[in-house]
């Protein structure tokens, strides 16, 4: 059974400067809720209630967000504004929170390896909260992936089809189609040029990883951009055993980019947000 979910939240968020100069990208709100809280809610809904945050310098606001603010609680208790705290109170009562720091930004693979001390020797989820995933009224993406993990017991990456002109922003897979949106990964490339991409199936920010990934990451040399790439480690895992890719149900917004962030804001405002509810 998977209990833990890792949130690498140490990145600089340069695409959102100057907003992210002193505020973590993951605290940018989609309407009235920070991005990272959407991710944590998706994790808890999937039964992954132990939240492991890999943070960095300047990310204290994230730690404070997942803690009780006694002053605020005291101020708002019994007033008409109390409903604004509903969702964060639920998250705090259901989840437990652990933190460690990534001291140097050496890439997503390195951030995940930094989380080893929090995860230990068990399979775990990974959510990149700048990818906002929604599937209103149905299982969230992490819950869908947990069901698959319980059946197949190997690492799983979430994928979606993207236009070839955007493919070089993503890790891209090629694999054997097993039906039902599942592929057995045969090839995986980080941010390929369109002409070198093995398919149009792009990896997005949801993973379930088996703990052997840590040893593989330790032995993975820096790849693209001099960073330790999770994609390279997953390719090794696929060659040694099995990695599945899953075309999830629902929608995903790239909130690490300004257009994706605006699209998500409009979608959530029109379809999910309820006035007077936090
Ligand atoms: P990104 O490259 O999309 O995020 O990394 P970024 O670096 O924060 O954004 P830009 O490109 O400068 O605007 C994907 C995810 O991996 C985390 C980021 O926080 C983000 O959630 N990450 C990346 C780390 O935690 N550590 C790293 O060394 C690199």
Please tell me about this protein's structure.
It is built from ten helices and 13 strands. The protein is α/β, with parallel strands linked by helices and 278 residues long. The chain has one domain (4-271): Spore Coat Polysaccharide Biosynthesis Protein SpsA, Chain A. The mean pLDDT is 95.
Summarize the structure.
The chain is an alpha/beta fold and 278 residues long.
Q: How many beta strands in the DSSP annotation?
A: 13
Structurally, the number of domains stands at 1
Overall 3D form: globular
- What is the strand arrangement across the widest sheet? 8-11-9-10-12
CATH superfamily: Spore Coat Polysaccharide Biosynthesis Protein SpsA, Chain A
Structural class: alpha/beta
CATH topology: Spore Coat Polysaccharide Biosynthesis Protein SpsA, Chain A
CATH architecture type: Alpha-Beta Complex
What is the average of the pLDDT values? 95
Helix content range: 25-40%
Taking Cα atoms only, what radius of gyration do you get, to the nearest Å? 18 Å
CATH class: Alpha Beta
Bound molecules: uridine 5'-triphosphate
Element-level helix/strand string: EEEHEHHHEHHEEHEEEEHHEEH
What is the CA-CA span between the terminal residues? 31 Å
Q: Could you name the ranges where pLDDT drops below 50 across 5 or more consecutive residues?
A: none
Largest beta-sheet details = 5 strands, mixed, barrel
Number of contiguous helices: 10
Report the sheet-strand fraction: 25-35%
Topology:
Blueprint: E1 4-8, E2 29-30, E3 33-34, H1 35-45, E4 50-55, H2 60-65, H3 70-76, H4 86-94, E5 96-101, H5 108-114, H6 116-119, E6 124-127, E7 131-134, H7 141-152, E8 155-161, E9 171-179, E10 182-190, E11 201-209, H8 212-218, H9 230-240, E12 243-247, E13 251-254, H10 258-271
Parallel strand pairs: 1-4, 1-6, 4-5, 8-12
Antiparallel strand pairs: 2-3, 6-11, 7-13, 8-11, 9-10, 9-11, 10-12
Uridine 5'-triphosphate (UTP) is lined by residues 8-15, 25, 54, 102, 105-108, 110-111, 128, 130, 256.
């Amino acid at each position: 059974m998977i209990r833990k979910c890792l949130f690498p939240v140490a990145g600089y968020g340069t695409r959102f400067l100057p907003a992210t100069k002193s505020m973590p990208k993951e605290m940018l709100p989609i309407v009235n809720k920070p991005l990272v809280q959407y991710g944590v809610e998706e994790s808890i809904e999937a039964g992954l209630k132990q939240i492991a945050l890999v943070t960095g310098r300047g990310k204290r606001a994230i730690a404070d967000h997942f803690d009780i603010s006694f002053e605020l609680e005291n101020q708002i208790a019994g007033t008409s504004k109390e409903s604004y705290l509903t969702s964060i109170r639920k998250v705090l009562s259901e989840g437990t929170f652990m933190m460690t720091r990534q001291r140097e930004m050496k890439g997503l693979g390195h951030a995940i390896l930094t989380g080893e001390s929090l995860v230990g020797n068990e399979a775990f989820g990974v959510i990149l909260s700048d990818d906002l995933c929604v599937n209103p009224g149905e299982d969230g993406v992490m819950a869908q992936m947990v069901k698959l993990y319980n059946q197949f017991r190997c690492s799983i990456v979430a994928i979606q089809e993207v236009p070839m002109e955007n493919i070089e922003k993503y890790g891209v897979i090629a694999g054997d189609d097993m039906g039902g949106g599942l592929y057995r990964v045969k090839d995986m490339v980080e941010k390929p040029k369109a002409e070198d991409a093995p398919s149009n199936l792009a990896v997005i920010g949801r993973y379930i990883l088996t703990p052997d990934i840590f040893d593989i990451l330790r032995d993975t040399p820096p790849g693209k951009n001099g960073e330790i790439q999770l994609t390279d480690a997953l390719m090794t895992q696929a060659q040694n055993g099995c990695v599945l890719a899953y075309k999830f149900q629902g929608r995903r917004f790239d909130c690490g980019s300004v257009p994706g962030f605006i699209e998500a804001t409009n979608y959530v405002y029109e379809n999910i947000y309820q006035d007077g509810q936090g």
